[in-house]
Amino acid sequence: MAILEIARMGAPTLREPAEPVADPTAPEIRALVADMLETMTEAGGVGLAAPQVRVPLRVVIFQLPRARVEEGVAEDAEDTEDTEEDPGELPLHVFINPVIEPLDDEQALGWEGCLSLPGMRGLVPRHTRIRYRAFDLDGTLIEGEATGFHARVIQHECDHLDGFVYPMRMTDLSLLGYDSEWTRAMLEGAEAAE
Ligand code: NI
After folding, report:
1. Which one of 48, 67, 96, 153 counts the least CB within 10 Å of its CB?
2. From residue 63, how far is each of 77, 91, 150, 154, 186 by CA, in Å?
3. Cα of 72 to ligand 1 centre, how many Å?
4. Tell me: the pLDDT tens digits for 82-134?
């Protein structure tokens, strides 16, 4: 296994559609996923797409912090730093050649971050309910429905396979900013309220 370099917004693989994986069971795909997991864990992310490690293939991985899923609302799609859980204990989801579709028109705003835009955060509209189909590493078709934070993570990661980063999904770019500024504004707001 190896920790891979994470591409930042502007890298060619983050701007172009990725290629379908011909054989999800191929040893090189298993090796790629192992490297992606190590890279994501080291970076403290919730999800990672192959184009983020400069591999233009339709592969995404994610781990869902239980607390976030139970909240039903999304806070940072790629950031586990304020959870108590050991990421190594969470189930790893591997989606190869995923296809997603919204179940209805309902959307919700939620904060997202991305390992390819380090230090930034934005408020992004996403579908609240989706259906997904993908292959796993054994070549088995996995199908299901996802809501809330789970649905947000899947949409964020699958967007990387089509050349989208989350600011491209935002409807109000005044809500894109640096983490440090959001934190400062939040603390000042808390002080003012005292
Ligand atoms: Ni991302």
Report:
1. 67
2. 10, 6, 9, 10, 27
3. 20
4. 445 666 678 999 999 999 999 999 999 999 999 999 999 999 999 999 999 99
- Ligand 1 center to 137 CA (angstroms): 21
Task: Point out the catalytic residue in the list 71, 157, 191, 194.
Answer: 157
Q: What is the mean pLDDT of the chain?
A: 91
Measure Cα distances from 185 to 15, 21, 45, 106 in Å.
32, 44, 24, 29
Q: If we measure between CA atoms, which residue out of 147, 152, 63, 80 comes closest to residue 111?
A: 152
The CA 166 to ligand 1 mean position distance, Å, reads 7
Active site residue 157: yes
* Domains, the chain, ordered by start: 12-193 (3.90.45.10)
